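Note to self: keep these together.
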Amino acid sequence: RTELEAAMAKQGAEMEEKLKAEEEARQKGDEQEASARQKDRTELEAAMAKQGAEMEEKLKAEEEARQKGDEQEASARQKDRTELEAAMAKQGAEMEEKLKAEEENRRQEGTSAAAKLSDTSAMLQAVRSELEQAVNHEKSEREA
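Structure:
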């Protein structure tokens, strides 16, 4: 009986030692697992921070490119507007010159027509005078 109790006590102590060792191993494994999880979390956070910084740089570069493009587009629009205004001013000046030339031609034609009219009127007046003289001369001869 004493031997049985001693054997059982020994077996109990061995089992307790084994359980204790397993518990320590489990705790050590839990600690290692927790440490590994913490390491993974830290690495993930670092990778996310790096990716966030890269995305922010990319967005900043895109915004700068967009602004530069907007400035270039605005500059191009202003250049087009200036060129259009210059072309319109040139066309307006050309039309004004053309109108002045046409007006001068009309004035000269009007002066020329008036001169022709005056010449024709003078000629008609001369013919009329000659006819009146001829008629009066004819009357005088008949009366005589």
